[in-house]
Amino acid sequence: MLISFVKKKYSIFTILKNSFSDNANWKKMWRNPEPKKNYDIIIVGGGGHGLGTAYYLAKEHKLKNIAVIEKGWLGGGNTGRNTTIIRSNYLWDESVHLYDHSLKLWENLSSDLNYNVMFSQRGVMNLAHNEHDIKEMKRRISANRLNGIDSKWVNPKEIKDLVPIMNINNLRYPVVGASFQPRGGVARHDAIAWGFAMRADEMGVDIIQNCEVKNIKVESGKVLGVETSKGFIGSEKIGVVASGHTSVLAKTAGINLPLQSRPLQALVSEPIKPLINTVVMSNAVHAYVSQSDKGELVIGAGTDGYNSFTQRGGYNIIEDTIRAMVELYPIFGKMKMLRQWGGIVDICPDASPIISKSEIQGLYFNCGWGTGGFKATPGSANVFAHTIANDNPHKINAPFSLERFVSGKLIDEHGAAAVAH
Ligand code: FAD
Ligand code: PYC
Question: Are 226 and 216 in contact (CB under 8 A)?
Answer without folding.
Answer: yes
